[in-house]
Amino acid sequence: MLIPRQKTPNLALPTLDHGAFDLSGETAERGTVICFYRGLHCPICANYLTELEKRVADFAERGVNCIAVSSDGEERTRAMADKIGAKSLRFAYDLPLDVAREWGLYISTSRGKTSIGIEEPALFSEPGLFMVTPDQTLYYGSVQTMPFVRPHFSELVGALDFAIANDYPARGEYTGAV
Predict the structure, then answer these.
(1) For residue 91, which phi and psi values (nearest 5 degrees)?
(2) Is 45 helix (H, G, I), strand (E, B) or coil?
(3) How far is 63 from 69, CA to CA, in rounded Å?
(4) Tens digits of per-residue pLDDT, 28-38?
(5) By residue range, what is the domain housing residue 69?
(6) Domain for residue 78, yes or no?
(7) What is the pTM of this model?
(8) At 120, which CATH number?
């Protein structure tokens, strides 16, 4: 389990159009939003990533980079980026599933073709949304067991405004006896 205010696992992956992504080398003033998505086969992911694409500039105005990550290969990742009309959102691909597990993501098995007629990979990770600080510690995290009911990016932008204005720390950091 990832713990707020503690270092996250590193994440180093190829991207479609932005060279190699390495979380340890990110330079945004306030950090990076990492949106792990299921893959091309998921119509809910396409809608979710469309919303993130619309908010990339909002995050950038607040000193935060964004990236979408999946275990899909380059071809399927390109198809997803094209499907949502991505212009600003970075897409990383080839997420190893053991790395997905390090991030606390759930892994699912294929059920064949989805409602949109695209074959699910044999194994893939379920969604997760994280904000990681520039020193690579966890600020915010949410993981899903299913594709439904995800955090809204507009709420995350609003929460970021509050956190910046009030120097609000990451919460959930206590690991002692209860």
Answers:
(1) -125, 125
(2) helix
(3) 20
(4) 999 999 999 99
(5) 12-18+28-151
(6) yes
(7) 0.97
(8) 3.40.30.10
